[in-house]
Specification:
single chain, alpha/beta, Metallo-beta-lactamase, Chain A, seven-stranded mixed sheet, five-stranded mixed sheet, 13 helices, globular, binds zinc ion, Metallo-B-lactamas, MBL fold metallo-hydrolase
Length: 323
Amino acid sequence: MTYANHTRFTRRGFCLCCVGATTFAVSGGWLTPKEVFAQAQGIVDMIRSAAAKAPIEVHTLRGNVSVLEGSGGNVAVLTGPDGKVLIDAGITASRPRMLEAMSGLSREPIRHLINTHWHFDHTDGNEWLNKEGATILAQENARKHLMSAQRVEDWDFNFPPSPPAALPSETVSAEKSLRLNNATLLLKHRPNAHTDGDITVAFAEADIFHTGDIYWNGIYPFIDYSTGGSIDGTIAAVEAILASIGDRTIVVPGHGQPVSNKAELQAYRDMLTTIRANVSSLKRQGRSLDDTIAANPTAAFDAKWGQFVIGPAFFTKLVYEGV
Ligand SMILES: [Zn+2]
């Protein structure tokens, strides 16, 4: 990856890019399958240190909703008289830049935080946001994962339980409707997709849809089998989201360029279903994981989708685990 590319991706504030760029710089872009899996190790520490430096870029959408980019997952903010409502918390190290960006949006305090799932790049900031005055809400499985130690096998990382102030005090089971700041927020559980505790958040009047990590815009996604995620659940969730949004809907992905739309989400669905079919066919022929990776089942998509930390071999492994 060239320096120019790295600069462009860094400006987008997608902190995983720094991990990808570093790895590409070291390896020249070519990794053996073993190296690819080794690359996943240490991801968490690298994301944390990247977020400590990354600027926060503000994208103003509509209906008093904005997106903050640059602190882990994309953070949506709804402003209004009930206080700021955040979708996802980002990384604690971004706190001063997050506060500065949010004070530029409105003067109200932060009152509500909704976690799309338990992963650290969406919940690391829970504790400081709770101390600022935010009530935290998440899907009940996400709360369970935050309450106890978790191991994410594919990151080779053990997470300790979250501190009490970081735990959601409210939970969603299947779905929930909230009325805040004169807006209707529809929260919906998407079972066994990116994890077993993903919720999506639709801002009904503004026609904005935050997908959490079910959708990574323009890049191969991570799927967390260790806490109940699956390729088939991810595809099912994307199909359900596509059926519920329109051509004017602004789609906010968990990662990647934060202002997306239905056509781009359809392209993501097509990528997922084609690669799933290719990998499944190879696995049914009795091919091992290494043989399946060597057959390049993602080849048609790598130039567009494979340029980040979840590269072609790593993504093939994630699909192979689930078919
Ligand atoms: Zn995630």
